[in-house]
Specification:
By secondary structure, the chain is of the alpha/beta class. It is built from 9 helices and 7 strands, in the order E-H-E-H-E-E-H-E-H-E-H-H-H-E-H-H. The protein has a 5-stranded parallel β-sheet, with helices on both faces. Strands 3-4 form a two-stranded antiparallel sheet.
């Protein structure tokens, strides 16, 4: 049986940086869903769309051993029974904006990702899929990947308690603040 620790979050929250460090600390293999999808010919179209059902089937056939699996599609492709714990990496939306801009995403993709992080879309999907006993969040806004990976490992080993759920919406409680977040994107 495969034992998976999942790492998910909105693009730019640190999955690709944190997951390999976490895998190292836990003595597990590490698998990125985007790389796996590319290597299996599952990425289609100019937007790089992945069919979650095809990815889910490919993972079911090939996932072996204790792993750290990371990607924003995690709640769509790995079932509750295959996952021990899942951490949702979160980042304050204004800081996330600064992380996404250098990636040269189309403006609408940046807006979509900022909105998703602001309202906690990936987090909500993850809690819905895996439940509150298997899911926790970590704020990566001002932590290094090493610090985040160490904290997650400590939570998984029972040496630290996860923090409360994160809600960015209270930081953007006026139209002025929201306009500021989305300015210079579109």
């Amino acid at each position: 049986m495969v034992a998976v620790v999942g790492v998910t979050g909105t693009p730019g929250t640190g999955k690709k940086s944190v997951a390999p460090l976490l895998a190292e600390r836990l003595g597990r293999g590490c698998l990125g869903l985007n790389d796996f999808a590319r290597s299996h010919g599952l990425v289609k179209g100019q937007e790089g769309e992945v069919d979650p059902l095809a990815l889910k089937r490919a993972l079911a056939r090939e996932l072996r051993g204790d792993m750290v699996v990371f990607g924003h599609l995690l709640p769509e492709v790995l079932g509750k029974s295959s996952v021990e714990k899942v951490v949702v990496l979160r980042c304050e939306p204004a800081v996330l904006k600064g992380r996404l801009r250098p990636r040269r995403y189309p403006a609408q993709q940046v807006v979509d990702n900022l909105e998703a992080e602001l309202i906690g879309l990936t987090s909500a999907d993850t809690f819905k899929t895996y439940g509150s006993r298997k899911t926790f969040e970590v704020d990566t806004t001002y932590t290094t990947p090493t610090e985040a990976a160490s904290f997650v490992a400590d939570v998984l080993r029972g040496k630290a308690a996860p923090g409360p759920r994160i809600d960015w919406t209270m930081n953007y409680d006026s139209s002025r603040k929201l306009k500021s977040l989305f300015s210079e994107v579109v």
